[in-house]
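Researcher: Quick test of sequence recovery. Tokens follow.
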């Protein structure tokens, strides 16, 4: 605490002429010299922790954050025991100063490479090589997202070389990434050449339209294409490019149909990478269209057929997950299946339970703490009744800020009620303070699953919505999605709440007003209220919370991924690992059949 106060005091008393380097020198130069004069690692690591605590606890200029995080790295990275401290410093720097992402990844990779060089035994070398290649792949993804394709290409080539040398898994996927990045570098060279030509002759409409198509198709960047449009461009091109740059949830239903058809036409004449990108966008448009188009007529049937055709084409191309702008995160066969907007995840006690980081930062662990009589069963599930599990403050902050910003959320869980006499309602999952003050609550009222939600004001937070019926001693896969659209004012906004049981939509509710602007800081808790007694008796597993309303197709994919686990749990069998693809479960069934 004294160290943090000293940092804050020196920063506040620094004059306008003091540069960040001078402030840093006044704070730490003498301490760093004293620590380096000794050969004891404890001195270096103690000072590194002190500086890291200071930079985390104060609002400092970007230049000072860079100096302090680099000092932590220099002090801690020389000692094996300090590698985690050095990693934490680079992680903080990447999140606080995004412009330093390349620098941060370079230093993270240095640590991994040093561990590989220091490894003596074959097994340790193999483990260190796997960690180094994993870091190279993560750096490639982060730098590609930041638009640093040249550096990302260098890293993925290193990852490919190391994977082959140490015979690591994932060589084929790494090779595909390397091919895609090489193709992207060629596209960037072509873009630079076209931009030079356009600067020399701005009236050349042919070059301008080539550059627009390059941005839309090969770079998957309609937003960049919009900046190049002018009145001389074709009217249809101007219309579609402008629509492509908008989020799908901002487009009218029939506009989605037209945009999907346009993407399909572009895919016909595109390169391999461009074809995949356009088909992904086409797929996203059809999925959104089918979610919003309620009529059961020939238009819907044709749209479903076109979606199936697009997916067949993607399968032929071997297209991997897409992260293009405006395109939903691709759905995996492994739970949680989709990570776009993921805020909290907890499969069971044996899983990693990590929310992926963004901008090159490490992921956030989700470790609910038990309270009262709550415990973890031998199957790794939460057992609730006269107790609860409480999420940490980090999850509370993420949930509040992200959902207020998006005016949408999804709550997913596998639940097993002990009996159908519970009422109040008994709290299964609640983002609340006490029995009266909440943002949302998923609860049980006898044989019904119910939901309460605060929107614009606190007056609506006690309105109980009945979703569907439950069964005692049986596991259910439950998904609740909510999204709001604003009207002329927040009071005229309306929201749509959908509840799904085992992949099927069971109910839909409309709320008005619907915005989540009335949400307040609360506590995410499982099995009870935070400051009141509303115990729920049962078991929980497979909890995921998002800052968006996931689509119906994503929910079906989720149910398919957890169905083997649901069946095992309902048969009282142990299931500790997150579910993988269906082949694993089919293989187990074949083996059982052979034994019979």
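Model:
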């Amino acid at each position: 605490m004294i160290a943090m106060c000293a940092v804050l005091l020196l920063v506040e008393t620094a004059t306008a002429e003091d540069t960040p380097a001078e402030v840093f020198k006044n704070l730490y130069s003498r301490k760093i010299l004293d620590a380096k004069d000794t050969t004891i690692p404890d001195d270096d690591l103690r000072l590194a922790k002190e500086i890291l605590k200071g930079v985390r606890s104060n609002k400092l200029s970007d230049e000072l954050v860079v100096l302090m995080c680099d000092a932590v790295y220099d002090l801690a990275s020389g000692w094996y025991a300090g590698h985690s401290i050095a990693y934490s410093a680079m992680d903080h720097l990447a999140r606080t100063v995004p412009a330093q992402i390349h620098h941060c990844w370079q230093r993270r990779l240095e640590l991994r490479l040093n561990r590989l060089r220091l490894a003596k035994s074959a097994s340790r070398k193999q483990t260190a090589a796997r960690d180094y290649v994993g870091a190279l792949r993560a750096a490639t993804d982060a730098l590609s997202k930041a638009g640093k394709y040249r550096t990302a290409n260098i890293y993925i080539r290193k990852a490919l070389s190391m994977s082959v040398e140490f015979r690591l898994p994932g060589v084929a996927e790494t090779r595909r990434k390397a091919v895609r990045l090489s193709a992207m570098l060629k596209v960037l060279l072509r873009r630079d050449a076209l931009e030079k030509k356009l600067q020399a002759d701005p009236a050349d409409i042919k070059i301008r339209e080539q550059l627009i198509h390059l941005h839309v198709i090969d770079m998957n960047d309609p937003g960049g294409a919009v900046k190049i449009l002018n009145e001389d461009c074709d009217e249809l091109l101007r219309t579609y490019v402008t629509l492509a740059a908008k989020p799908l949830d901002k487009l009218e239903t029939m506009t989605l149909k037209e945009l999907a058809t346009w993407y399909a036409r572009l895919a016909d004449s595109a390169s391999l990478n461009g074809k995949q990108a356009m088909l992904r966008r086409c797929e996203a448009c059809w999925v959104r269209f089918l979610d919003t188009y309620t009529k059961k007529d020939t238009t819907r049937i044709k749209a479903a057929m076109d979606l199936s055709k697009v997916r067949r084409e993607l399968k032929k191309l071997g297209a991997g997950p897409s992260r293009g702008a405006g395109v939903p995160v691709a759905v995996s066969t492994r739970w949680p299946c989709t990570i776009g907007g993921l805020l909290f995840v907890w499969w069971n006690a044996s899983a990693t339970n990590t929310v992926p980081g963004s901008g090159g930062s490490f992921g956030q662990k989700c470790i609910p703490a038990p309270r009262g009589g709550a415990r973890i069963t031998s199957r790794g599930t939460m057992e609730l009744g006269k107790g609860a599990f409480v999420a940490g403050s980090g999850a509370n902050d993420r949930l509040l800020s992200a959902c207020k910003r998006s005016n949408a959320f999804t709550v997913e869980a596998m639940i097993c009620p002990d009996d159908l006499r519970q009422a109040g309602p008994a709290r299964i999952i609640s983002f609340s303070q006490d029995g009266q003050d909440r943002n949302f609550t998923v609860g049980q009222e006898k044989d019904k699953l119910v939901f309460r939600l605060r929107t614009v004001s606190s007056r609506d937070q006690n309105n109980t919505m009945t979703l569907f019926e439950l069964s005692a001693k049986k596991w259910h896969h439950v998904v609740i999605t909510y999204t709001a659209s604003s009207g002329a004012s927040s009071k005229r906004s309306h929201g749509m709440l959908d509840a799904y049981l085992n992949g099927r939509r069971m109910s839909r509710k409309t709320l008005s007003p619907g915005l989540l602007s009335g949400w307040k800081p609360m506590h995410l808790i499982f099995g009870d209220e935070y400051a009141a007694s509303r115990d729920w008796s049962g078991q929980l597993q497979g909890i995921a919370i998002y800052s968006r309303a996931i689509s119906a197709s994503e929910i079906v994919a989720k149910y398919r991924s957890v169905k083997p686990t649901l069946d095992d749990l309902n048969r009282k069998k142990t299931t500790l690992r997150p579910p993988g693809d269906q082949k694993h479960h089919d293989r187990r069934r074949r083996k059982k059949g052979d034994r019979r």
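Residues 2-183 form a domain with the Serine Threonine Protein Phosphatase 5, Tetratricopeptide repeat fold (CATH 1.25.40).
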